[in-house]
Amino acid sequence: MLWLLSSVAAEPPARAQENSQALAARALFDEARRLISAGQFAAACPKLEESQRLRAGIGTQFNLAECYEKLGRHASAWSLYLRVAADTKALGQPEREQVARERARTLEPRVASLVLQVSTPVAGLELTLDGSTLGPAVWGVATPIDPGEHAVGAHARGYAPWRAAVSIPDGAAHITLDVPRLAPEPSAAPAKPAASHELPAVKSPSPTAHPGDESEPDHTAPYVFGGVGAGLVVLSGLFGLRFLHDNAEAKKICASNGNACPHEDIEQHESLLSSARGARNAGFVSLALGLAGVGVSAVWLLQDAKSERGSEHVALRAELGPDAALLGCSVPFRGF
Fold first, then answer.
1. Can you give the C-alpha Rg of the chain in angstroms?
2. DSSP string for 153-205
3. 3-state secondary structure of 83
4. 260 within 8 A of 321, measured Cβ to Cβ
5. Dist CA 75 CA 224 (whole Å)
6. The whole model's pTM is what?
7. CATH code 1.25.40.10 region(s) in the chain
8. pLDDT digits (tens, 9 = 90+) for 108-158
9. Matching CATH number, 111-179, of 2.20.25, 2.60.40, 3.10.20, 3.10.450
10. Residues 45, 19: contact at Cβ < 8 Å?
């Protein structure tokens, strides 16, 4: 209940900040369109990038892809066209999807690629391209890249770093760069072990505890888990209804105009799409956490009812990755 009250109290400032960002994003978008009409693409692209950062929208993405294409950044434009196609497909807008896919198909023959070949990797090797880390899955794979000068680096703890510059010509060039084996440093410090994501264990009630003991367990904990979990499941349904409503309203605005949506309707259209995406993501997160809470509560109560031995533990563990987060629990099974 306190959490809900604090969320309501914090809503007006958050709404004001969102409106300010929307207005700034709109101003940047309009200025970028003016610059594009004047042929000043180098000045227009950064404004579209900032507009997209402040308020993501499919229309802004499409215009940014066009701007990149005019500047000769074929890989960036091609990638954005495909992203627009995927987003419009998910929102049920086939005309806009077709336009974006056709642009990507036309541009694909002009996209250059770079292959970073690692023949003898050392332990803990990391590669960077223009400051961004490339995981081992990308090594040896032809990666789309814009024309121009690019910085490549390789480093690993205990080894001297390696750097190189590669020039990508305009057109469908395919460049391969061999990354040499790193030379060890004279005084290499041992690598520190990776940090654990193990969360503190939560003790389950002990069947041998007696009234008056200082360590008497709190029997309300599993009910709290279950109540919060059930509430989150219900909340996910509300988010789902919000997604269906906003997505349907957005499709009504530009359903028959393809990519030529009236200029005055773009802001409302993008606002509805942003709201729909936010509701969809919030619904998925609420459902996952709610099911986890209900599951922990059910297993906890079942084990309490059948326990015949001393105190055990319910262990929670979080696995964090670049594209996903997993919350799990483990409870010792004592039999029936």
1. 27
2. EEE-TTB--EEEEEEEPSSS-EEEEEEPPPPBPSSPPPPPPPPP-BPPPEEPP
3. helix
4. no
5. 51
6. 0.50
7. 12-109
8. 999 999 999 999 999 999 999 999 999 899 899 999 999 999 999 999 999
9. 2.60.40
10. no
